[in-house]
């Protein structure tokens, strides 16, 4: 029975994917005498936690009930009061937790508080699923840097463009729509200035999406992004341009007038680990790196890759000069290659989507 209700709580949590950052996804279910009397999910940072919604729905029936929650209830005052205190106040009898919260402000303290108040607490029901649900949050909390997904669309021979730089379109429309679903689940989309110059992309979530747009981040050491680029002029989403230390205020001003923000690095080049620390400080919990080959190469060589999403089209491009998905130096020895595990394979339209994780 515990697993059944926890599965429901996990499903509730999942419904808010892409909208809770920098907070985790959390679902809660209140059960009394074999009946579900309340449920809820955390929907947005700053808004009530899942337990609050579920207990509110349960009303007086919360007394003596069992509460299933996908993540350890918080024990500290953040933007909302501690959920552990609310569970105690509502006199629930038992709390079942899927996984503990690695956030140093919580980290077992929520569970301890409940137990000290005499509440029976069970921990670890569907833990694996709950850990996967919040892997981006857990990575961010423990490293203070965003979770990195590399994404590319490639031909069957591993090319992301032709030798002349054309990449529209390698994959089918269905696969390209799927990219929008994946973008939505990340806080920011990262590309190199090479991709801006070659494709002038919009880098927004489209196809009926009306919610928050991910931030568009361009790695552009010398500020080569044209002032007429879509990401500068369209006002569809925030745009951050990352530049080297040598770029001057005067150079940046015309972009700032259109709403673009700058991250000026301390060095003349953009060092990926420093960039990730900088994005982490700005509450960016996850990034979707959409190329091109040079930028992918830099993420790989700095070992900053948690997940790869590859769309593979049954097309052959060929040629030594056509870029492959990941450029840069590459590894010289097989033993140094980054080994991932395939987590998901799916046919989308005429293409194959592969999700692999470290
Ligand atoms: N099929 C796909 O999924 C896909 C996706 C994206 C792009 N593409 C294709 O790929 C091509 C563009 O790729 P690209 O490799 O030439 O360009 P890119 O990776 O988009 O951009 C590379 C440029 O970014 C700048 N940069 C700044 N910091 C960097 C860092 N730490 N590491 C790497 N680059 C950094 C560098 O220019 P500065 O030195 O001036 O800063 C560098 O030349 C286009 O043909 C495009 O159509 C295909």
For this structure, the quaternary state is single chain
Beta strand %: 15-25%
Shape: elongated
Unreliable stretches covering 5 or more consecutive residues: none
Number of strands: 14
Describe the biggest sheet? Answer: 9 strands, mixed
- Spatial strand order of the main sheet: 10-9-8-7-11-6-12-14-13
By DSSP (H or I, 4+ residues per run), the number of helices equals 12
The N- to C-terminal Cα distance equals 33 Å
**How many domains?**
2
Which bin fits the share of residues in helices? Answer: 25-40%
Instruction: Look at the structure and name the CATH superfamily of the largest domain.
Output: Dihydrofolate Reductase, subunit A
Q: Can you give a write-up of this model?
A:
The chain has helices at residues 2-14, 50-58, 83-89, 109-116, 127-133, 135-143, 173-184, 193-199, 230-233, 249-256, 272-281, 293-301; strands spanning 27-32, 35-41, 66-71, 94-99, 120-123, 147-155, 188-192, 215-219, 239-243, 261-264, 286-289, 307-313, 341-348, 351-357. The protein has twelve helices and 14 strands. It has 358 residues and is of the alpha/beta class. Helix 8 (193-199) links the parallel strand 7 (188-192) and strand 8. It has two domains: 1-137, 3-Layer(aba) Sandwich (Cytidine Deaminase, domain 2), CATH 3.40.140.10; 145-357, Dihydrofolate Reductase, subunit A, CATH 3.40.430. Helix 3 packs parallel to helix 4 (109-116). The chain is 29% helix and 23% strand. The strands form two sheets. It has a nine-stranded mixed sheet with strand order 10-9-8-7-11-6-12-14-13. The mean pLDDT is 95. NADP nicotinamide-adenine-dinucleotide phosphate (NAP) binds at residues 152-153, 160-161, 165, 167, 170, 191-195, 198-199, 219-222, 224, 270, 272, 290-295, 298, 323, 327.
